[in-house]
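During the no-cost extension, the postdoctoral fellow (Dr. R.K.) reprocessed legacy sequence entries with the updated structure-token encoder. One reprocessed record is reproduced below for audit purposes.
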Amino acid sequence: MTVHDRRLTAARPDLADIRLKGQVEAANFVAGRPARIAAPLVDMRRAPRADAGLDTQLLRGADVLVFDAAGGWAWVQAERDGYVGYVEAAALAGRGAAATHVVSAARTFLYPGPDMKLPRAGALSLGSDVAVVDWAETRGTRYALLDTGEAVFAGHLADRAAFVADFVSVAESLLGTPYLWGGVSAFGIDCSGLVQISMRMAGRGVLRDSDQQAATLGEPLDPCGDLSGLRRGDLVFWKGHVGIMTDAATLIHANGHTMTVALEPLRAAVDRIGYLYGSPTLCRRP
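Re-encoded structure tokens follow.
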């Protein structure tokens, strides 16, 4: 049998996605049950335990296929990027109304009604999908009313069919966001999560991890070694890390040095990162 990437393959020795029959070995094959992430932000882990490694996260409104549920955990595959892992089953709901809008601000609050003076009911990150069923205005401020009964400031939403022209501007809007290994949100994000969510807001689907992005995004720039000729939007990869060029000399990246999304001169980043991880391995132009 072919060796498959476990991150993108819903297959265990006891159970696998029925679409993989004939491609993988498993005792049983099942069709995934459609579900949707109902919580604002959900950790996806590589085992059904709270102390298992964090691989990635799923935002409110993300559609998944559920292959198994037991002990409070569900084994799922995210439909957007294909990532497979375990999430808390309580975070899942059925697929209700189709999403109409996406959160376009870095972060926004949920309210139990259309009034900023009400106690907040939660918070959503950039990239969260919501279904707007109506609109309301209170003291001159316009709110979107969601299918969940909650309200959100209308100015923090964009139509799901409207994409930003410059994905780098999305990354720049997340400057100062804390670094979180496996994070994909404006509450905490890692290097490849920053690339993924920024490009998603520009209408481009991107795989989750930096090695996947290095293998699939755009065209390689040759040579990359002298780092000349780079421009805004180019991606610079190291082993296990990626950053986005904001101009010919400056990198924006979520990094463990500042523990934030930060701007850094590319040459300084190369010198600093090289001490532990070597030189850049690849540059790509999406």
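Residues 16-93 form a domain with the SH3 type barrels. fold (CATH 2.30.30.40). The CA atoms of residues 183 and 189 lie 4 Å apart. The remaining legacy entries will be reprocessed before the final report is submitted.
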